[in-house]
Amino acid sequence: MRLHRAVRREEARPFASFADEQKANGFEEATVSRHETLDGEHGRIEMRRYTAFHDIGWLKERRDWPGLEGVVMVESRREIDGESTQERGSTLPR
Fold this sequence. Notes:
Strand order of the largest sheet: 1-5-4-3-2
Number of helices: 2
Structural class: alpha+beta
Shape: elongated
Helix content: 10-25%
Order of helices and strands: EHEEHEE
Largest sheet: 5 strands, antiparallel
Radius of gyration: 14 Å
């Protein structure tokens, strides 16, 4: 899957709330695909978790995004010298 573009913050709010809710219940109510990567070089460890949401009809109704077939949530956690940072974003697949 190629990623099309990052979702702007204001576009992501409804999806972020939905993603948080689905993550909290173990994605039991959503059709998702998941993939994780782990990378460790140059004194750092980085884990990325990709969660692709496929059933997004509700989001298509709220936004005019022709051809939208899914949204991908990307979570990353990086450890450098014992300090950890986390980030999360959303992107649209092509």
